[in-house]
Amino acid sequence: MILVTGCGPLGAGLVKAMEDQPAKGACDESNPDIPRGFMTYNFEKEQDIRRIVDVEKPKILVLTEEIDNVEYCEENRMDAMYYNTRAQRYFAEAAQNVGARLVLRSSAMVFDGRKPGGMYTEEDHTNPLNVYAETKVMAETAVDRTKDFLVVRLGELYGAYFDNFASHLVESLSMGQNVELATDMYFSPIYLDDAIAAIKELTLNGMTGFYHVAGPERLSHYEFGKKIARAFGFSEDRLVPITMADLKLTVLVPRDTSLSSAKLNALMKVRGVDEGLAAMKTAAAAGKN
Q1: pLDDT band at 267 (very low <50, low <70, confident <90, very high)
Q2: Among candidates 112, 102, 114, which has minimal Cα distance to 140?
Q3: Of 104, 188, 203, 287, which has fewest CB within 10 angstroms of its CB?
């Protein structure tokens, strides 16, 4: 049995994609949107985290639950450290006790964004710039100490019906708003369904170590915005090119979080942004994610 923590788009999607294994979902009892059939636990209690693993005894434990709001993490360091690091370590230790293989969701934010040309590989050194990134690096370290682990660093997820860069932009453009987008901030967007398929592939095939699960392209926020506008039939004139400095960010974030997914591509093909956005548009029209 596979146990997946977290009931966000990624966690819920993984449970659905792997339900034939079978897979079970579990998330924090305080979550306001717990999917039907998901178990709950108290994320704030170490004994409850260990209990659910001890009782279920999964063969594979997939950790997707986290606090990913960068601003919140910066202002609430203790919360971020607990949820994103200590709690993940409790899960990792519990997994070892029952002989479960461990899969951890991580982030491209673990890098400092200063690599010329970006496209970070799994071998590049991490250098976190903010509290959120620091907690993710520490979680990676905790998992790395286990015997059987997989760390998945994700590119920017996008899709219909959940909060993300693309869905927010579509909403703003549909309301006739102009949107400012940085021309000098880069990432590697990946469609949610493709990220789920990749994690499923890596998990079920027993892959270990670090893998980057991201789209094949390095795009600036502005370039991605133009592709979104074209895909959904909006005028690109509504997009206003600016620089990262113009954003006056309150938290230090990497300028370039693009990831090389060459290691993943040796196992499976991930769709590019144009194909992913077409799938997103079709899903939105059909009322699916």
Answers
A1: very high
A2: 102
A3: 287
